[in-house]
Design goal:
9 strands, paralog of FGE (formylglycine-generating enzyme), 22% helix, single chain, four-stranded mixed sheet
Length: 233
């Protein structure tokens, strides 16, 4: 009986993981940004203490970069979060990559991220999405529904699944928080998509943003990619 119960739990966990990812044939991508809950499992399993925790707090830009005491992935704004489904932030590039390895994946490349964010690839996407079409924004024909600095319901970061689902059924590929990807340029690493601090223009595919690999701030999170056998999507 115990073995059957454990086997059921494993199958349930695999199914839940599959539902949380979007497949692109030979690889898949997290449907949402990695959340506080997800990173907490990683921390509990590995004992990781992030650089923001060790150094007293992460950064926020207010007339220059300012360290905020007590701000880290556990409490992004220095107080207990309103939801553990908020994105995990205040993570360096190496910490983001380590999480993805622990989760069985890796950071996506910029080209993978762009393909997933702007070109609809589902076999039978729901209306109004059109298979094979590339959109100006990760949210479609307009940036409406994204969490930017413009008028919207979210004064700061939004929890997973709160904003409008976009191209390929992905959430927050534009805005909410910047996302680390694998691309390197010297000591810098690329981030994608913009954040709630910026206006919608940072969501466009042509934006190129690089940050020091060891940097961490309230605006920077991640999502993971996963290599998988080719299959329809």
């Amino acid at each position: 009986m115990k073995r059957r119960w454990l086997a059921w739990l494993c199958l349930w966990g695999a199914a839940a993981s599959a539902q949380e990812r979007v497949s692109f044939g030979t690889w898949a991508l997290d449907r949402t940004e990695v959340t506080i809950t997800q990173f907490a499992r990683h921390a509990a399993a590995t004992g990781v203490v992030t650089q923001a925790e060790r150094e007293g707090g992460g950064f926020e830009y207010v007339a220059g970069w300012q360290r905020r005491a007590g701000w880290n992935w556990r409490q992004p704004d220095g107080t207990p979060p309103t939801s553990d489904a908020l994105p995990a932030v205040h993570l360096t590039h190496a910490e983001a990559a380590a999480y993805c390895r622990w989760a069985g994946g890796r950071l996506p490349t910029a080209s993978e991220w762009i393909s997933a964010a702007y070109t609809e690839q589902r076999r039978a996407p729901p209306v109004p999405w059109v298979r094979g079409r590339s959109y100006a924004w990760p949210t479609g024909d307009s940036p409406a529904g994204a969490n930017t600095s413009g008028p919207d319901p979210w004064p700061r970061a939004a929890a997973a699944g709160q904003t409008r689902a976009g191209v390929n059924g992905l959430y927050d590929m534009g805005a909410n928080v910047w996302e680390w990807v694998a691309d390197a340029q010297g000591e810098d690493r690329r981030t994608m998509g913009g954040s709630w601090w910026y206006d919608a223009d940072q969501m466009r595919a042509g934006v190129t943003a690089w940050k020091p690999a060891g940097f961490y701030a309230v605006y920077i999170g991640l999502r993971c990619a996963y290599d998988q056998p080719s299959r329809p999507h």
